[in-house]
Every structure is written in structure tokens, then in C-alpha cells.
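Exercise: predict the fold of this chain.
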Amino acid sequence: MGRLDGAVAVVTGAASGIGAACAERLSADGAQVVTVDITEGVDYALDVRDEGAVEEAFASVMSHFGRLDAVVHAAGVIGGGPVHLLDSDEWDRVLDVNLKGTFLVDKYSAIHMLAQGRGSIVNIASIEGLEGTEGGSAYNASKGGVVMLTKCMAIDYGRRGLRVNCICPGGIDTPMLHSIADADGMGFYREKLREEHLLGRFGRPSEIAAAAAFLASDDASFITGHALVVDGGFTAGLRVGLLEQLGM
């Protein structure tokens, strides 16, 4: 018996990476999963910036299933750079997909969940929404916005039966990570980033999916407004190699 048996769940960004892993995990846990992405090969191909398309997709899910128990919103893009070098169109692209897209998916999730009096929303944010990084600018700002939006929604809707949480992954072995880390000249920085994770490796999409399945389920029934860090120890503190001198 799965922890999500009988649940209807929507997963965005479901064509690859964290989103695909979340769709697979929620399905394995017994949910009927509806997949959403900007590419073909999913149940609903749409741009999360398109309010009409998002509204229509959620209305269609409700029409077909009659309920909406969980949403895992994983759709997002990477981008940024030092502010003085950042084109305003790039800023708009990143903020529109990552933050406005979250707003729209959460809005139409909440509308239907409020009508039924229960539901769980899980947004995929980032540790870069909790602390700054070199050249982060647009991406960090967008993910910081996702964290704050999550908390505000938890405050607004907790008494109405909705739980809203987010996950803040560290470096996860996904196509998005490789699009940056595998670029020419990035080998040294990729390894340095990997070493900053105290477990000595990048995370797996399935590890984020496990956290998402937990937060989506009734096992997390007393958790809302939380930004769950799943980062292999990246944000735990500074590791300088002192213990290596002690043979550890």
C-alpha cells in the first residue's frame, strides 16, 4: 500500500530531471499523476507563464478526476550573472518562469484545493533561494521569491485545509546542472562545487522526489510553510580540511 494511494497529483517540469523523478516516485507511491511540461510527451504541454493555459489545464484535471490532492511544481530555468552584465530580458525570462510560473501554478492549484477543503502544494525552490552565490542574481532572486511565496500561502490557507511547502535542493545531477557544469572550462569549478557538498557528491533526482512524495502525503500532515533543505550538507557550514590533518 502506497502513501499516496488514490491521490490525484499534478507534477510540472515532468519531462526531465527533478520533475520526471517526482512524477515517477508519486506514481510508485500510488498516485494518479498528471504530467506537465513545456515539451511534448506529457499530459499537458504548456508554458507555465501562460495563465490561460495553466488555468485550462487545472480545470481539465478537475473535470476528469473530480479532485486534486497534490501538486509538485518543478518547472524552472537557470540563468543570471553579475547584475551590471545582465540583460534585462534575461532577468525577465528567469523571473517569469521561476517566480511568475510558480505563482500561476500555485494560484490555480489553490483555487481547486480551496473548493474541496484540502490539498498539498510542494514547490521546488533551491538553496540559492536561501543564500547568495556568485553571479546568482536572477536565479537566486527568483528562488528566494518562491520560498517567500510558499510561506505566505501557508499562512493564508492553513486554516482552509491547504499545506504549502517547498524543497531547497543543493546540486542535483540533472540536465540543468550539466548545462552549466559541463561547459568549456568549468571542470575545476564543477569539482569544487561537488566537494562543497559534505557528502562528497551531487544529489540524485530521486532523492528530491522522495522528499516531495513525503511532503505531498499525509505523512507530512502537520508540516506547512517549511523550506526543506535537501543538499547533502552544502549549507551546514564551512569545511576547510582540518580533520584531514587528524587522519579523518
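Check your answer against the key: The radius of gyration is 18 Å.
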